[in-house]
Here is the input.
Amino acid sequence: MHEYLVQPVGNDQDEYFYTIHSRTLNTLNKSYLLPVDQDEVKRSDIHHRLIQFVFRGRNYVGPVKEALQFGQQRRGSSPPLLDLGTGSALGMLFGIDIADEFPRAEVIGVDLAPIQPRFELCDLDQWHIPYPDSHFDFIHARSLHIGIHNYPRFLHEVARLLRPGGLVLLVEPTLNPCPPPPTHPPMGGWTALWRTYRACLSQQLIDVTVPERLPDLLAATAAFENIIVRDGNIPVGFWQQGKLQWMDYELLLPALRPLFLCNGLPPSTVDILIRDAQHDLYHPSFPPSTLIHIAYASKCF
Here is the structure.
């Protein structure tokens, strides 16, 4: 019998949060050092709208409808759908939108902190995610690899949870955004901050190459077939198409402060890193763009 760590959200939420370096973080996984406060709620909303932009107004790519319909026909009951790393009340917009589109689906959201009152708490970095084998018809995992120490193990858990023929959709932003075009040098402040971010994650034993390797990691499980890659190239700037990603980064840069400080960087160094990266974000030396890596696949029968 496995000991699962899953908690319902109760009324007393103080046990789920702590404050460090003037930001609120979760207590369930203290190696995940991005905040869970109101600024992060705003960023979750922006990120959701950004993904919709990449998906051309939809909440997903791939045969989600077919997977849920097949599951319903096979079970004769509501097809269950799992949203991993569901996020805040605004970040849960994916689950809300999916529930509106597929009213017969049972949507379950899981995350580290109870900002949203109707989902379950679970540290996805644990070995066993607390649901039965072959239970879900569709699993969605977005922007959570920086909290997962062993992503291949995580994908094996996703495979265990999916029924044969079930669909997984993975969405992970690159950790090397806005590279310069061949005719331009890199933006110094921007490059230094992201290099430091990757180094801090690596120091915490997070594999920073995961976003670029999603299809290979899926294939390595030997549990998935029909692996499809749909990466999104996103402009970053003040104009309409680039504004969402720009706003996301504007909130992300100061949110990295607790991670940097907890990894031993002096406050003065952290201040300079964030300030210089903000300068490059506000005054880029070339039209920047970034990538969001997307892959989906079906579990083998």
Q: What stands out?
A: Residues 12 and 224 are 41 Å apart (CA to CA).
